[in-house]
Design a protein that fits this description.
By secondary structure, the protein is an alpha+beta fold. The protein is built from seven helices and 21 strands.
Length: 323
């Protein structure tokens, strides 16, 4: 389950919202068109102009038959402005192919927020034909306009799952990246690590550097590299594994992975950084929460996802619930 909060409130999901990971394109049927002459909400507008009952109008919306200025809309309470054109097609929108390894949590004119599955690259490091989140989302936005583009704001490692964000213009990308520390209010990860972490909570601070083989490590000398600070809290633990909530104060490459190795409890499945276990079948790291100030509206937006079930398997006999 995924929830989104705007200004601290949970945004209810309408039953008419399209399924995550799917876009729409319109069949070439001549639609009925109506001009918006005064501010209104979509459902109310349709009830005034379509000679059908409330349930029938909701069904028309749910099937993707309604467009505002040629863009399919399914939200009942979509605000309307004078000058917009409402189109009602005889047939519903045709679902575009599902995205692989991605759920779209939120999309507007400026950003796309997704939940990425483990095993999917955020973006290709070269010109390879690998399936990536970036390539799929680029195709997604170009279904409505071939000139549309997306821009990388931050990345998750291939084997890390969770919430990440893309910009839909270079201006928004630069705004987010240039003011990342001020605008991002919270980044919370869940880490399944090897062994029993003794302290209930703690902070790891070090200077990170990169070897010629592209492996990050903590330097023993102050000011030697990029300063990185990681806060953690133990949620569950037994002799074999600990489940940690990890908050980033800085966002350096492989920061959590290096700091967990420094702690003496490498992330499960992370053989690059000292792990011995392979039982999980993936990296035991999940970006659970991303909270930020929207670059255009200025509203606080928070996206939170569930802890992956495999992270909880080592604690099945533990009666203490995870918060």
């Amino acid at each position: 389950m995924t929830s989104a909060r705007i200004d601290g409130k949970v945004a209810a999901k309408s039953s008419a919202t399209k399924r995550p990971g799917q876009g729409h394109y319109r069949k070439s049927e001549p639609p009925r068109q109506y001009n918006v002459t005064e501010p209104d909400e979509l459902l109310n507008f349709l009830l005034k102009h379509v000679k059908s009952g409330r349930n029938a109008v909701k069904s028309i919306l749910g099937r993707g038959q309604v467009s505002i200025d040629e863009k399919v809309v399914t939200k009942f309470n979509e605000p309307l402005k004078p000058g917009q054109i409402i189109s009602i097609s005889k047939e519903g929108a045709v679902a575009a192919p599902s995205l692989t390894g991605i759920n779209i949590l939120h999309e507007d004119d400026d950003i796309i927020v997704i939940r990425k599955e483990a095993g999917l690259l955020s973006i290709a490091a070269d010109k390879s034909d690998d399936l990536t989140a970036y390539r799929q989302l680029m195709a997604h936005v170009r279904r409505t306009n071939p000139l549309n583009r997306i821009f990388v704001v931050h990345r998750l490692d291939r084997d890390t799952s969770g919430v990440m964000m893309f910009a839909k213009s270079e201006e928004v990308q630069q705004q987010l990246q240039n003011h990342w520390k001020e605008n991002v209010r919270d980044r919370v990860y869940i880490a399944l690590v090897e062994g029993a972490v003794a302290q209930e909570e703690g902070t790891i601070s070090s200077w990170l550097k990169e070897t010629k083989t592209l492996k990050m490590y903590s330097s023993s000398r102050p000011n030697d590299g990029q300063h990185a600070v990681t806060h953690y809290k133990r949620l569950k633990a037994n002799r074999e594994f600990s489940l940690l909530e990890v908050r980033l104060e800085t966002g350096r490459k492989n920061q959590i992975r290096v700091h967990m190795e420094d702690l003496g409890h490498p992330i499960a499945g992370d053989r690059k950084y000292g792990a011995r276990t392979r039982d999980l079948g993936r990296l035991g790291l999940h970006a659970r929460v991303l909270s930020f100030i929207h670059p255009t509206t200025g509203k606080l937006m928070t996206f939170e996802t569930d802890i992956p079930k495999p992270f909880l398997y080592p604690f099945r006999g533990d009666s203490t619930p995870v918060q």
